[in-house]
Each structure stands twice: as structure tokens, then as C-alpha cells.
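Q: I have 341 residues here and want to know how they pack in 3D. Can you give me a structure?
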Amino acid sequence: MHSFEIINVNSQKWNEIVRSSFTHDFHHTAFYNTLENNNKAVMLYLEESNDFIALPLIIREIEGTEWFDATSVYGYCGPISNKKFTDLNLSIIKQFVDETKTYFHNNNIIAAFSRLHPLIDQHTLFNNFGIIEELNKTVSIDLTISPEAQRKQYRKSNKSELNQLRRKGFIIEEAKSQAEVDAFIAIYTETMDKVGAGAEYYFSNSYFHLFLKNSDFESKLLLAKFEGKIVAGAIFTISNKIMQYHLAGTSEEFMKDTPMKLILDEARLLGNTLNLQALHLGGGVGGQDSDSLFRFKSGFSKNFCQFSVWKQINDQEKYDFLVSQKSLDNSNNNYFPLYRG
């Protein structure tokens, strides 16, 4: 026998499931799924013979219709389980897929999308359910090897530049006050303006303050300072032995000095101190392996991971109708669902 339920993001059970999973990240927590999502997050949860599969999703209305679609939070999410997905009985996977399809049908959810986690093997669940599209590579520093072995993977120029930054007097400190957080927010916003970032990369001030104070996972804001002035900063999360490089920015005045390199080096050392397994730096902008951001990150590690997304059309007729109503002349044809592109 199995049981299938839809768990609301405000339910205490959400985080109990996350904590009992074989592996997870902060993207799976109730807090992160609530943040700026107006309580539209649900967790599809199936339990069978003491095993479970859970998939967090954000349910969105499709404007002008009585239909909905589903997506995942910003970042790396996807399903979780109490075991490796490759160790699960095929029957529970089939039950989860069947129940999820029924849920989508009964609730007029015509399409579903989820970004998958590069450090968690989630593909098995979707072998016969939708499609998995491999996008770009991401960069991860293996913290299970010695600090010396980690540093050997650094690009040669990085090593000399880190030494120069320290000699010049750049230091790294953790933010200790709201004023320091506010200074970082200003720098982050300035950085997004400079690179012409999309709307999805901008966040309210309350987002940052709530993020850094939340109780579902640990987060740290590391700041680079020069002569007492904050010149760069980055938020790192710590969850289930995984450290994530989440949001970062550098003051335009100090861009040429690249103090972010020193922040990442200190974050790596912090991860070693905390006995973490990985510092995941993420990938390039817009799924590219050749842009400057990816080249910057790949200067810290040769350990590349595959970033993939899951796409599922639940009602092809309604999906095609919505696409037909949209002018696609200037759209990104790789976007999913296409009618939102």
C-alpha cells in the first residue's frame, strides 16, 4: 500500500520530510519555497513501505484561463527521497509518476518544469516521465580532499592574484550588522545593473534580511573589505554538507582587483573547517559554458557537474492552444513552457 498527499508549504511536515531525506539542499526547505512565492508552493509526497519520494513545486496561475502550470524555485531543486533514487524499488517510482499525473490532470496543471540539482542524481525518477534536458556545466570544489589538493586545482593566475590581494590589504569578514547587509545589497544591485541582469536576479531588501536570519538552513554573508570599506560580498548557504555560492556582487570601483576571488578562497577554507563535502559555485549566465562567469568559476576547480532541467507537458492540446495565442517572433524557443517565453 502507498499513500499520496499534497503538503502545503506552511505545514510542519514539509521540513520533517526534507530533514529525513538521503540528501537535500536549502532549495528544498519550506522557508526557501515560501520566500517571494506567496505561499503557492506544494510538495507532492508519496510513501510506500517506509520509503518516500517528494517533489517541491510552485503552482502558478495562467493568466486569462482557469489553468495552471508548475515550476521550481530559483536555483537547484528537483525531487528528494530517503534513499538514492537508483536504490528505490521501481514500484514506488511508478506509483509516484501515476499519482503525480493524476494530480496534474485533476487540478488543470497543463505543464510542469523543475531545475534539477547538479550534485544529486535525480534522473531515475524521470526516465518515463517527461524529458530531461541537459543544459550547462556547473563548477564544484570537492571539500573531501585535502585543502592542498583543492588549491592545486586553482588556475595558476588565481594563486598569484590571491597572494596579491592579501598583500594589498584586502581582508574577508562575515557581516555582523544590518548596515553591512544593506551595504552588500547596494553592491549586489549595482552589479546586476552593470551586467544587465534580468528581473529574476533582483530581490527586495526584505528578501536578503529574511534569508540571512532564517532557521531552516545556515547562511553566511562574507564581505571583502579594503581600508575598512566594503568592496564585495557573497551569500553562502550551508545545508546537509553542501555549501552553495548563492548571490554575489562587487563594487564597480574594485572590479579590476577581483576581490571575489579572495571571498571564494576564504569560503572554501570555511567549508573545510566545517567538514563540508562540496562548495558548489554554479555555472555561467543563461546556461553557457563559455561566458566570463563560467570561466571565473572554473578557475577554482576542475570538478564540473551537469545541470539539467525536467519538462513535462500534461495536456498537449491546451499547451498547444496557449502557444498558438502567443507571438513567438521575438521569443526564446528553448524556453519552457513556451507560452511564457
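Q: Anything worth noting?
A: The CA atoms of residues 162 and 262 lie 6 Å apart. The chain has two domains: 2-136+307-340, 145-276.
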